[in-house]
Specification:
InterPro entries: AAA+_ATPase (IPR003593), ABC_transporter-like_ATP-bd (IPR003439), ABC_transporter-like_CS (IPR017871), P-loop_NTPase (IPR027417). GO terms for molecular function: ATP binding; ATP hydrolysis activity. By secondary structure, the protein is α/β, with parallel strands linked by helices. It is 32% helix and 29% strand. It has a single domain, classed as P-loop containing nucleotide triphosphate hydrolases (Rossmann fold), CATH 3.40.50.300. Helix 3 packs parallel to helix 5 and helix 5 packs parallel to helix 6. The chain is globular and about 50 Å long. The structure holds adenosine-5'-triphosphate.
Amino acid sequence: MSLITLKNVGYRVDQTPILTDINLTIDAREWVTIAGPSGSGKSTLVRIIASLLSKTSGELVFDGQPIESYDPIVYRRRVSYSFQQPTLFGNTVRDNLAFPYQIRQLSFDEERAITGLEYVGLTASDLDKAVNDLSGGQRQRVALLRNVMIYPEVLILDEVTAGLDAENKAFVWSMIQHFNQDDGLTIIAITHDQEEIDAAKRLITIEDGRLVGGSL
Ligand SMILES: Nc1ncnc2c1ncn2[C@@H]1O[C@H](COP(=O)(O)OP(=O)(O)OP(=O)(O)O)[C@@H](O)[C@H]1O
């Protein structure tokens, strides 16, 4: 069954169309890569799917119900959005990884945090490391890990590997692969990276606010 269905979705700002007639179906556990020129509407599209922007026309159905029928807080726990410039807060890595538990009044699963850190090439001792001492790539890995500490169903990634060096890119890439293959998360990832585009399981392309290529 499809998890996300967009029917003739459009987005206008005043009279300017940013997205036009987007028809797209994404199944649970799929990994969809979105490519296209700068300014073509990729971020706008994923922000609509993430409920951070409201479409101005068409329908968006998530798990059988219109997006408007969901409480936005509940929806955003199921559909997580990560972007290029991660915001870490507090003093330490632990503060960040514990945050998803705190807001749900759950106790922190330290074991899961350590497993996650090891998975992204960090270690248990990094848990108490100051976020200011992390490199840009490490910050991105911790930010992504924070977004999946309590599993969402959909992970939306808006150019999360942009600006990372090859080593950090490889860590982030294998992390995403693990979430998708082993944990069954649905992945929607925007990228300009040719290697990621070439490796896409399902590639869709946006040009000038319309889906123009790939398997729609
Ligand atoms: N609120 C807004 N008001 C006016 N124009 C907007 C608004 N939001 C987006 N746009 C325009 O819509 C177009 C699509 O923007 P969007 O950020 O979705 O593109 P993108 O494909 O993600 O680009 P990039 O690859 O550079 O990140 C751009 O021309 C942008 O200037």
